[in-house]
Records
---
Amino acid sequence: MPDYWLTMLDEDNFRYTVERGIYGLPEGAGDEAKLIKPGDRLVVYIMKKGCRELCQSFTAVLEVAGEWQRSKKPTWPDEVREGRVKYPWVVNVKVLIMGKVEFAKIKEKLQGLLGIGDLDPSRLRLYALYYAKRPLPPGVGELVEAELRKSAAAEMRTHDKLVDILVEVGRWLGFRAVKEYRIDNFRVDVAFFKPPRTTPFAVAEVHVGGDVYKDLAALKHAYDRYGSKLVYVLAKDEEQVAKLLNEALQGAFHEIREHIAVVKAEELHELHETLKLAGVKGLLKQLEVAKPADF
């Protein structure tokens, strides 16, 4: 049976770890590295400091997929910023499950498994598990992994449902809608086509969880490549994601700020229900926005 180990990362380093499939430990953790063996699992918790979207949440379970090696050059975002190696012990990892489980939602279950009356990350109780340099007690890692799988399954159902709604709305408005459309090395959730144009007239991404910057990169590439209209649907943590989105559109993605429509999931649902109305269908047909067969 694999051992589960708690690891605490900031959000930038977590995303780097997932994207590159590599995890690192500081110089003083050499003895711990010897204990974490191939096949063991790392339970990832995102620290509050410097976080944006995943604050104080469990976000992944990673499997150790190799032997530990020594790194001699800055790799992680904070290492590059500081110009020094902070995590010389590195190992390849693969993602078993990703999602978002807020600490508060499973706090009572964790307290029961750990026999702790007040498990509060701000009071360093959670940090004590990290710095203990031993595997998590039985049942703790398994609980987090199970909760992440439930969270990921729910997000996928929500994501897929919203993508289906986008496709149906697009079809009702006279577009040919294609799911999971690839544009070079990027993929968008939906691409909308309208003859005689052969490239996407518009593209859409649905955000239920994951990396906002990755979504925006896909949308920006469609804009740069084809001049496509951009649609971004927010389905979870709307206020928090909207704040992060605004910062991104003011900064790294400022070129698409005036070319992106941000839509809440409930607004998309309302549009979908409105387009179902017989009178609206009739109007769209008369205006030749949609063909009879589209409905």
Note: The longest strand covers residues 89-102.
---
Amino acid sequence: MRKYIAYLLLSAVLLVAGGCGDDSEIFYSITYPVVRIDAEVTLPEPEEPEEPSTGEDSGTEGTEGTEGTEGTEGTEGTEGTEGSEGTEGTEEPVDPLIAQIQAEVAAEAPVQAGGSYRLDFYRYNRGLLTVETATQAGTLTGAFVKEPGATEITLYILGTSSPCTLSYYTDTDGRNKVLLLFDLTETFQERYPEAGLTKVIRREYTSTPTN
């Protein structure tokens, strides 16, 4: 049913874009070459175990009288442990499930690094989409809808609709470039119902400057 609706929407967009007169002329085009793909995957934070409560009447308060133990504060030599900053460089181990989902997201991306999206506007808010997949699928065509000033684009391709959010990232050259975000949370929640996934976002980094 979802594919059928997407097909009808795609047909409508193509019909409008392919109309006669001025509407059939491209008045604006933009291309997003994809240079890198990764995924943001989040799981619920594990609940911290509750510490057993000690009664207020416990006699441990009597230890305050051992003021002599304040000398332990003088063990400044232990501050040297802060010097073990080298351990800060060690990355925390990635959850195996997160790593697996990240690999699946990247592998299943319709456009791989080296591919691109080309948007040809026939009207102010829609037009034809040409996708260079950089895979065996080759070049694909579809349609898109984007309202002026909006950060959302809906791509219609391969019989499906793919909402995409336009964001940005700072590249190594210091310039802000377009980042395409695809929300795949529902797809992977259905695939891994027991995982409790809270977010799965495919991030496609492009070489297109934001301005």
Note: Residues 1-8, 15-21, 61-87 have pLDDT under 50 and may be disordered.
